């Protein structure tokens, strides 16, 4: 099985190849340079594995949530690549990938739930809760909320102090009241974790064609306003 994964969701750009259990990745923090770097990184990863696009089984990409521009860059690139060789695409949650990466970085966190957060701006965060049993699925619906709403939701879910926190969205001062065992605000999304999460989804035939692929913004009204502004130019 060979899956090429791409991500430009946040302040990093990464490409990873999953090939029969082995992963090759290129990762760089380049918040404003994604477009120029992405395709050369694809070429590097494929060349290292001595593969070409037709030799892949599928592509994987972060479907969101995340920044409007960041999501569109990777998704548009994957759509073009997948369409060119008629391969399926596996969409993966950016919050789930963030959780898997944090678990990989912090093996001492064990199997405790991880609450991941990305800054959604406008004093809000994108967030979800992930465990080891079903790492692709949040234990509650992924949401965009202000910090106070998140705190209330965490209390309602009964997590108490039995979870860890990961992601830059945890920087809001109000979230200090959340009783996480530990937090990693520097955690970032890696394409290697998107590739790992894509494997069981591909095996379960949870794929899309390039034409069907759409980003998940959660904050649909903001996305609509941005699209309207772009179309009016």
TrEMBL record:
GO molecular function: tRNA N(6)-L-threonylcarbamoyladenine synthase activity
Keywords: Acyltransferase, Transferase
InterPro entries for this protein: ATPase_NBD, Gcp-like_dom, T6A_TsaB
Pfam family of the protein (one): TsaD
Source domain of life: Bacteria
Domain Gcp-like: 29-157
Annotated family: Belongs to the KAE1 / TsaD family. TsaB subfamily.
Record's protein name: tRNA threonylcarbamoyladenosine biosynthesis protein TsaB
Lineage of the organism: Bacteria, Pseudomonadati, Pseudomonadota, Gammaproteobacteria, Cellvibrionales
Name of the coding gene: tsaB
């Amino acid at each position: 099985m060979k899956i090429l994964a791409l991500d430009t969701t946040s302040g990093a750009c990464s490409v990873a190849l999953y090939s029969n259990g082995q992963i090759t990745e290129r990762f760089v923090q380049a918040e404003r340079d994604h477009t120029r770097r992405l395709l050369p990184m694809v070429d590097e990863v494929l060349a290292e594995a001595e593969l070409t696009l037709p030799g892949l089984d599928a592509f994987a990409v972060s479907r969101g949530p995340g920044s409007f521009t960041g999501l569109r860059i990777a998704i548009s690139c994957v759509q073009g690549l997948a369409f060119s060789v008629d391969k399926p695409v596996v969409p993966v949650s950016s919050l789930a990938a963030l959780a898997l990466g944090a678990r990989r970085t912090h093996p001492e966190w064990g199997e405790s739930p991880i609450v991941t957060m990305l800054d959604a701006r406008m004093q809000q965060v994108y967030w979800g809760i992930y465990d080891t049993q079903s790492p692709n699925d949040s234990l509650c619906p992924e949401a965009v909320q202000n910090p106070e709403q998140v705190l209330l939701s965490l209390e309602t879910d009964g997590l108490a102090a039995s979870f860890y926190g990961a992601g830059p969205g945890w920087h809001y001062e109000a979230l200090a009241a959340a009783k996480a065992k530990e937090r990693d605000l520097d955690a970032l999304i890696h394409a290697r974790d998107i590739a790992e999460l894509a494997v069981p989804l591909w095996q379960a035939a949870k794929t899309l064609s390039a034409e069907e692929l759409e980003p998940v913004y959660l904050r649909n009204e903001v996305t609509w306003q941005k699209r309207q502004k772009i179309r009016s130019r």
